[in-house]
Amino acid sequence: MWSSVPRYCSTPKSASPSQWRDATDSGSPLMVPVRGARQWQPDVEWAEQYGGAVMYPTKETAHWKPPPWNDVDPPKDTLVSNLTLNFGPQHPAAHGVLRLVMELSGEMVRKCDPHIGLLHRGTEKLIEYKTYLQALPYFDRLDYVSMMCNEQAYSLAVEKLLNIQPPPRAQWIRVLFGEITRLLNHIMAVTTHALDIGAMTPFFWMFEEREKMFEFYERVSGARMHAAYVRPGGVHQDLPLGLMDDIYEFSKNFSLRIDELEEMLTNNRIWRNRTVDIGVVTAEDALNYGFSGVMLRGSGIQWDLRKTQPYDVYDQVEFDVPIGSRGDCYDRYLCRVEEMRQSIRIISQCLNKMPPGEIKVDDAKVSPPKRAEMKTSMESLIHHFKLYTEGYQVPPGATYTAIEAPKGEFGVYLVSDGTSRPYRCKIKAPGFAHLAGLDKMSKGHMLADVVAIIGTQDIVFGEVDRKGKGPELGGRRGRKGGTLWSGSCSQHSCAVPAERQILSSRPLSPCPGWSRQCSCSHSFWLNKQRPWQSLSSAISWMPSCFSTALSSPCSTADSSCRCERQLPPVRNQMAFTRA
C-alpha cells in the first residue's frame, strides 16, 4: 500500500476520484489510475537528476557529458561509395564479348557503361580492298545469326548502283530464305533469353528445329552458316530437287513447336516475374535512341520496312506486324514469338507462289556463265575468269539501302567510284543503337535483371564492332591502277594542274577533290587501265553524272536502257550536291 501519492500520478485521488479505481482483485484496497486517463509528466527538477551521463552520478561522473546522439545528424562518411563492377567479357550471359562497367548501390544498378570493340576486325576497311563479289562473305560474319539477311541488304545496294533487277524466282528465293533466317535468329534470341533467366528446356527443344534449318542452308549453298548464297544479280544456284517439299513439311510442324514454347514460358509465373515491367522503353525513348525492329515495335510503334518500304517481293505476300503495348521484356518476347508465326505464314506463300525461271540476271558483265558453258565455250571461260578475278565495274554513285533484318534495320551505305571495288561501305547495325540504350533500360533495376535486359536486346557483337579504321570520309588514297582527281573548289584553294582546273571551272562539274581539305562531297575516279578517249569527253560526261539532280547522261533516262552511262534513278540514289 502506498503511503503517499507517487510522483508519476496526475493528482491525488481526493482531487479527481473519477481517474482512480479500486484494485480489489488481490484483496488489497490499492488505488490505481484509470487506463486511458491523461498522465502528468515529471517536472523539470525531477527529470534533471537523470539528465547526466549515468543514472546515479557520483562526484566523478556528475561532470561527464553524454554524446549528442539524438541532437545532430552524424557526420557523413566520405569513404562510402557505390560498388563498381565489371560484367564480362567472359560472363556467360554477356552474349559474346560484351563488357559492362556497372555502378551498383547494393544490388541496384545506378550506372551501366558498355565497352565495345573487343570483336573489332576492321570490316568496313577490308571491304574497300575487295571486289564487289569478294566483299559479300564479310556480311555473313557481321550478324552471324542472320547471315542471308545481311547478304540481301548488300546485294540490293549493289543492284541499285548497277540499275539491275534480279529475276522473279531469285526474289522469291531471297524472301523464302530471309524468313528462314528470321526463324533462326528468333529461336536463338528467345531461347538464350530464357536460358539466361533459368529455363533450359526451351533451348534444347528449339535448337532441334534450328538444326533442320541449318540443313536447308547446307543443301542450297554447301555451308551451314556462312552461305554467301544471295549475291548481286540473284542467287548463287537454284533450289535442289526436293528442298521445297522438305521446307513445307518443316513449316507445317513448326507451329506446334511454337505452341510448346509458349506453354513453357508465356504464362509461367517465374518467367512473368522476371520479364514484366523489366527494361521498359517508352515509344518516345525508342525513337530518340534510334531503336528499330522488335525493340521499336515492342514499345507500340508499328514500323516494319517489309511493309513501309517493301523490297524484293514483300509487297506480294500477306503478313501482320505485331506490336507491344508496355515496352518491357515480356512484350518483346511476345513480339518475337508472333513474328515466328508470321514468318511461317510468309514461307508458305513463297512455296505456293514460287515461279519458274532463271535465278540470275541475264547480263554477262555481272553474272558468271554456267559451269556447263565453260566446258564448251572459250568466251564463257574468259568471262568467268575475269569476273572472279577483276570483278565487274559499278557506275559512280552512292546509295543507302536498308532491310528489315531480324534484329532491326540493317543498312548499307555504298559509294562507288566507277571501279570494281567499293570506295566506301558504311554499315548500319541495329544492335549498336540498342546497346547504347542499355544504360537507360538498366537504371533502377537489380543486377539479375540486367541479364534479362541484355537477352531481350538480342545483341550480336559481330555487327556492333563492325566499323573500319579509315579516315572520316572513308575511302582509299592513291590506289594502284588509277588516279584520283585532286584539285580545288570554292571551299579551298590549293595547287591544281592546269588541265585539272578545267574540271572545277565548268558549271555543275564535280569537285575533283573530295580530299580532307575540301568540305564538299564531289569526287571522280579515273581508271588508268580503261582511260577516256580524251579529256574533253571525260569532262562532257562527268557533270551530268554528279549534277545536283543526279540526271542520267543517257538520252533515254529510263529503266529500259542498259548502256554504260545509265545510272540508277533519283529515288534510289543519294544525290551528290555541291557544298
Automatic annotation (TrEMBL):
Residues 11-27 have a biased composition (Polar residues). GO terms for biological process: mitochondrial electron transport, NADH to ubiquinone. The keyword Electron transport does not apply. The keyword Hydrolase does not apply. GO terms for molecular function: 4 iron, 4 sulfur cluster binding; NAD binding; NADH dehydrogenase (ubiquinone) activity; oxidoreductase activity, acting on NAD(P)H; quinone binding. Its EC number is 7.1.1.2. PANTHER family: NADH DEHYDROGENASE [UBIQUINONE] IRON-SULFUR PROTEIN 2, MITOCHONDRIAL (PTHR11993:SF10), NADH-UBIQUINONE OXIDOREDUCTASE 49 KDA SUBUNIT (PTHR11993). This is NADH dehydrogenase [ubiquinone] iron-sulfur protein 2, mitochondrial.
